[in-house]
Amino acid sequence: MLVLIFPISVVIGGGITTVVCLMQKFVDRGSDLQIRSVVALDHFKNYIYVEADKEAHVKEAIKGMRNIYANQKILLVPIREMTDVLCVESKAIDLSRDTWVRMKIGTYKGDLAKVVDVDNVRQRVTVKLIPRIDLQALASKLDGREVVKKKAFVPPPRFMNIDEARELHIRVERRRDPMTGDYFENIGGMLFKDGFMYKAVSLKSIIAQNVTPTFDELEKFNRPSENGEAEFGGLSTLFANRKKGHFMKGDAVIVIKGDLKNLKGWVEKVDEENVLIRSGMKGLPDPLAVNEKELCKYFEPGNHVKVVSGTHEGATGMVVKVDQHVLIILSDMTKEHVRVFADHVVESSEVTTGVTMILSFWITLVLE
Predict the structure, then answer these.
(1) Which pLDDT tens digit goes with each residue over 160-208?
(2) Percent of the chain as helix, strand, coil, to the nearest 5
(3) DSSP per residue over 142-195, as a string?
(4) What is the torsional sign of CA 260, 265, 268, 272?
(5) How far apart are CA 68 and CA 353, in angstroms?
């Protein structure tokens, strides 16, 4: 038999109390109270939901309850909506500025974006991302001309060129944000700064967990702003989603931000959030506790490493150059230079299989 769900309106703040009273009533009367369950949900205020076989069973159960509005009409939750009523809301995402996210829907689905502002009250975030805008189509649309939509066409990501937009007679307004004081170019209600689009979106429209940008994606964000600063210095934000156990005893590390920036050392011990490192620097505690988000693995030219995550996962090679948090390694397999994040590699004596086979063959020939 199909079990039905009935919403019952209760006085403000009386949901939990009513559920407890019904539970006590069931204990007192036993099977005589013919309802199966009752719940009060945080995301449906001032209602309780009673599960029963018949409407008459619900009316009998709530008879005489003070927190329930009398003489209310009891309606059945539509069958197709019953699962939605009792679904559990996902845990709130803890987002902060400079967090990397991906767009979940629409034209920008799958695109990388960076959080620039968080509105926890309205459950919205402002992100900046590389625009996907067809300027010719936009000019026609703003001019009132008919735009022929190309089937399944998504414009490629391209920084907004304000001069090019003006040449197409697209109206560009420069506005100042009263909250931040920053200036933006406004085109048809869309905001742009330094070529990036700034877009306010719902938390439900982004992916915020386990987002790891590729090197190429971050390099595209390496665009100088009006003050001449480049985004590539913000690679430290990439380290927010590290997996537990990222650092191990003996790892060479470097401090990437804070008062101790550029301090080098070796991992002595790893706690929950802090990493104890030995630096050998006079005047500093030894070992020194540093937040793991302020650390990055450190390598020097000549180290042999293995890539353990990212696009080149599994590759091995020798470090030939170190550029901040980026390593250039000479691949054992292809003998080509590969750029990877220092955080994505570990020291290793392992050599890629293809090279091992070649070396083994060469040694065999020499021995013969």
Answers:
(1) 999 999 999 889 999 888 777 889 999 988 999 999 999 999 998 999 8
(2) 25, 30, 45
(3) HTT----PPTT--PPP----HHHHHHTT---EEEE-TTT--EEEEETTEEEETT
(4) positive
(5) 72
